Amino acid sequence: MSYIVQRKTSFYVVDYTGHDPITGKERRRWHPAGNQRRDAEEMKARLDHQRPEDKTGGTLAEFMSGTWLKSKPSITHPTRCRYKWMVEKNINPRIGHVKLGRLRASDLDALYADLLNHGGKSGQGLATKTVLEVHRTISNALDLAVDRQLIDINPAHKARPPSNPRRSEVAAIWDAEQLAHFLCHTQHKRLYPSLHLTAFTGIRRGELAGLNWADLNIESCTLSITRTRQMAGGQVVQAPVKTRTSRRCIDLDTETVEILQQWRRRLVKEGAQVTRSTPMFLNKDHQAPSPESFSQLFTRSTTTAGLPRIRFHDLRHTHASLLVAAGVLIKVVSERLGHSHPGFTMHTYQHLLPGMGAAAAQTFANLIGEAGR
Length: 373
What we know:
DNA polymerase, domain 1, alpha+beta, 3-stranded antiparallel beta sheet, 3 domains, hpI Integrase, Chain A
């Protein structure tokens, strides 16, 4: 980037040459161009033409698909597939051809607008949350480009991605009566045991899809959560759970254990090969259904049951909310859900505990009153 400066009767072409790697200050070189603006403009054009477009000559697509992805050897397979899918489907087709050193914030703003309006398979536009994920991915990649001194500044830091949609402070949930109605309404469904298990444990969809029969301990009435199956890049991938707290053992009630045992006997009767490594839930072809299949079943069943529409993930919120409202210790609820800290559970479900402060005040007053008598 260069520009013309006039000092009295003399013209200069100021050429921007990047940032000083030690001080971080911009470096500029002044070129005397004589007393005629025309000569200065010719010099400016010549300097701009001679400047390399970026220090590697590579494009954004080459950098993200190659250098950036290779710099993340420790990420899980589902995460890698998600990144690869995002780069190949949403980023490269639109701005992947742009030279790394020529990429500007305006290019990214145009990308986000296009994805919001015309992204996705049907061209209906991507969700704001997805576009924000694209922005964070590009920003992370360009941070690496700055660290490798391939570019001087990260243009994503100057871009204007869409605002994060406001999340409802209170998760959409059912009350106990609605949940009981739903379970009664879906008892005839083939995969009813999966719905029952989710409602009675609050496990995530990916954890549900990742269950094997080895994870069920009938003697201790427990269920081990050790892996997840997720959709990534249009395909189902399996991986260990991400965090230490997500790897957990959940206590089951006797009714849930009996329902799972009946389900296993049904699979054996149908001729399925059921071993310890067999997925717990199988479709009519005795194949593990995709995680999305559970959500689709839930959505259809919610509609036919005439219940308020909530997401499959909201069964998890419903499970936790009913436990908290019933007075179960937050630490116990947190451990069942696999939360990183009980404080997160409290923050999420504290709206279910109205009046606890007043109750605590009265309890304390009663204690002092009794001690004084």
